[in-house]
Amino acid sequence: MVNASHGPHRCTRCIWTVVVVVSGLAGCGEDGDQIGVSTGQDPDPVVVDIPIAYVKRPLPVNDNGVVISSDARDLVTFNAGGDVFVRDRASPSAVERNVTLPVTMGAGDVRDLSASYDGTRVIFSLRLPLIDGLDDEDQPTWNIWEYNLEADALTRLVSSDISAEDGHDIAPAYLPDGRIVFSSTRQRTSKAVLLDEGKPQYDALTTQRNEPAFVLHVMDDDGSNIEQISFNQSHDLDPIVLTDGRIAFTRWDNAGGNNAMHLYTINPDGTGLRLLYGALSHGTGTNGATVQFLRPIELPDGRLLSLVRGFVAPTLGGDLQAIDTTGFVENEQPVLMNAGMPGPAQSPATNNVVATDGGFSSGGRYLDAFPLFDSTNRLFFSWSDCRVDVEGVIRPCTPAFLEDPNAREAAPLYGLWVYNPSDGTQLPVIAPEEGIVFSDVVALQPRPFPTSPPASPSALEVDPNAVDDGVGLLHVRSVYDFAGTDTAPGGIRALADPAQTTQADRPFTFVRLSKPVSELDDDVRDVPRTAFGRQRRLGMREVLGYAPVEPDGSVMVRVPANVAFQLEVLDADGVRQTSRHENWMQLRPGELLECNGCHRTNQGASHGRDGLTASVWDGATTTGLPFPNTDPALFADFGETMAQVRARLSCATENCAALVPDLDLVYDDVWTDPVAAGRPADASFAYRYADLATPPPVDGACLTTWSPRCRVAINYEEHVHPLWSLDRQQLDADGVTVLADNTCTTCHSPTDAAGTPMVPAAQLDLTDGASDQNADQFKAYRELFFGDNEQEVMGDVLVDRLVEVGVDPDTMQPIFETVPVAPSLSGNAARASGRFFDRFRGAGSHVGYLSGAELKLLTEWVDIGGQYFNNPFAAPED
Q1: pLDDT-based confidence at residue 637 (cuts at 50, 70, 90)
Q2: What was the pLDDT predicted at 598?
Q3: Are 838 and 845 in contact (CB under 8 A)?
């Protein structure tokens, strides 16, 4: 908790007047005079007639008076003394009214103001004063409140105290239909999914694990009918409603190697989640500094205004950038309809030159902004000029003071201003005060209502039971379409023709659907770091199922609704062939998500938004006929992919069986017409959990019948380690004579059958027992995933092998070093683990030692990260 007080004000003779600002406005000169150019103007007569609401709070400082940095990833904050104020006129002389004082008593906090479309109400998040002696989880939460100007009434929208304290609610915005969208830790639907998975309900933490994840929810204007609409594993922040009815917001993507905040859109019902802008534009800060895209708001000209700054802002603010999100998905990447248009998409919203690289910013810094909808393109914003502290005296950011070796950035001084882009002037609305922050300003004036959002594609036209069954549909036109390029050998149409291509010639055969396991707080279960295995950053993951890739590369499959998921493209052995998907998709019940194809992370271009590239696969060229040389019963409609053909016919006759994923890898050639193709159909094959001689990583009905609740959770000790000691002796016809012993631990052991020390085959020990490097993990796991030292037998002892690498010049004694042994497996992918898997395939020395089902289990486990546990409730507690 921070109780910020007014700091010392050394500029004792600063007098605030109307000024034209380029930079250096709010500081004081050496003699105490104001820095700036006085115009002698009165405030804008049009602007002053507009009522405004804003937040006023103490500057957050620590016990030493140092400003507490703002971290965009930390949302459960509290800065005592914040309140909402209203002025009937946007004028420095207008009287301000504290409308939240009756409930905060001057010791609460407020944030995230948003005005109604008619300008009569303002909605915001408020946190009541913290209570001494209570633990954090028992303190008051952030709740959504509304102030009605006409009735002079302040109301908490969720009236029930119990329901209000069921989570933190922030960043509300009015929807056109009267409902409210907001960001919350309630996670209502996600908690219901946890119960379906057989887990207890808990608040899922962000992947950074410092606080619960805030995701988007909607509710009625009386606080009822709260519904979760987004399912990110980190924060979804600051939703606003665009002119076309969609919701734009900041999403913190933090999956694997992706850790940044971009702009996304979503429909009010949770359908249509898409990237909007910025996934590859984070290096657009000053001098290439990494920035994040925060607090979006739509400008009257259709561009999106965003606060651009780093994750951490020592002086709280950043730059205001206007972004052409209609024509661009990245700063230099236009959408397809804008092809050839040069960037940049981003441009400064004002004349002030704001630095975002952590250095002094001569143009000051911004906290937020709100546009005026009066055809003038003017902006209200919260702004602090650049000031330096030179040995305890606040100075303006002149070159002389900036070059002073004792200069450091002074505490910010955020006031409220109005900016007129027509002449580049900014005028004070509320003059800044030392030790006070004015922010979150909104104009209480009527503004246009958005239209209804565009309808998302519906799965019900294909699968009428999708809503009732709690699934959506994913349709990929071709996995061989990489960002608008046909990468199929010989082309997609050749791969789709059984007369030209067999299954063995097609690079991709299956897709895997996987999901993250929500991070849990130590109060729920204190899971040790070692439970995550080799790569903590990947978290724990579960497999949702597999689906076939049709000969043309198309996929259509049911996906459990209301969960975050990723898609992986596999070969016939179930090995992932493309880079790991490092952002989360979602589907709502009955939603159809369609995409042209795939992408590579090193392509340098964004994906995940409609209209970025044209599909390279046109599908069927006729209606009523099959694809060339395929089964005539599978007749196509013009433009359909093979997956669409199967889906349409299956839903007409088989209750959509072709859309149901499988937990096993099962291939059947349903396409080849032996007569037309001039060859027999490709052979079927299947790798099933039921064929394992060791415990399968799935129980009950899911072992044979898929449902949206099925989850594959692979835990090393339970599901993988037993493979190494499984009896693999090959016996003679007499059933007694051992012809060969392919049991893994026969060779991969530090002792032979008689107990005599020996070097484990390939320097890989797969026997039982805890690791001497980490007792929480089996030594076999450490041997597989971590580097080790080469060993040899000396006498009757197995020891690290030493080799001479030189001579000590002082003692002339030889210098010995151990010989490193590379790990057999990589947590990055099974494809990167050839040292292990190559022995079991092709001409490898261990072909036939492991069954197809066992190799499938090992492959999927390594592909999702090779975690030690993928069920936190099966892991030991720390």
Answers
A1: very high
A2: 86
A3: no
Contact status, residue 823 vs residue 786, Cβ threshold 8 Å? yes
Helix, strand, coil abundance in the chain, percent, nearest 5: 15, 30, 55
* Residue 817 parent element (H or E): strand 814-818
Could you give the CA distance from residue 673 to residue 752 in angstroms, rounded to a whole number? 55
For 877, phi and psi rounded to 5 degrees?
-90, 150
Q: What is the pLDDT of residue 537?
A: 85
Rounded Cα gap, residues 643 and 651, in angstroms: 12
Residue corresponding to tokens 């009236």: 159
Give the DSSP per-residue string, 292-325.
EEEEEEE-TTS-EEEEEE-SEETTS-BEEEEE-T
Residues 152-176, buried b or exposed e (16+ Cβ, 10 A)? eebebbbeeeeebebbbbbbbbbbe
Q: State the CB neighbour count (10 A cutoff) for residue 84.
A: 24
The answer to whether residues 208 and 254 touch, using CB atoms and an 8 Å cutoff, is yes
d(CA 305, CA 369): 8
- Determine how β-strand 346-348 pairs with β-strand 319-323: antiparallel
CB 783 within 8 A of CB 765: yes
d(CA 387, CA 385): 6
Q: Which pLDDT does position 334 carry in this prediction?
A: 96
What secondary structure does DSSP assign to 374-416, as a single string? Answer: SSS--EEEEEE--EEEETTEEEE--HHHHT-TTEEEPPP--EE
Write the CB contacts of 64 (distance below 8 Å, at least 6 apart in sequence).
none
Task: Give start and end residues of each alpha helix (H) in 727-823.
Answer: 744-747, 779-785
Distance CA 368, CA 295 (A): 7
Q: Copy the structure tokens of residue 419.
A: 């900016």
- Tens of pLDDT, residue by residue over 758-792, are 999 999 999 999 999 899 999 999 999 999 999 99
List of E strands, 564-673: 566-570, 592-595, 625-626, 635-636, 665-667
Q: How many CA atoms lie within 13 A of 367 on its CB side?
A: 28
pLDDT in tens, 379-403: 999 999 999 999 989 999 999 898 8
Q: Is the pTM of this model over 0.70?
A: yes
In the predicted model, is pLDDT for residue 850 greater than 80?
A: yes
Mean pLDDT of 42-61: 83
Mean pLDDT of the chain: 92
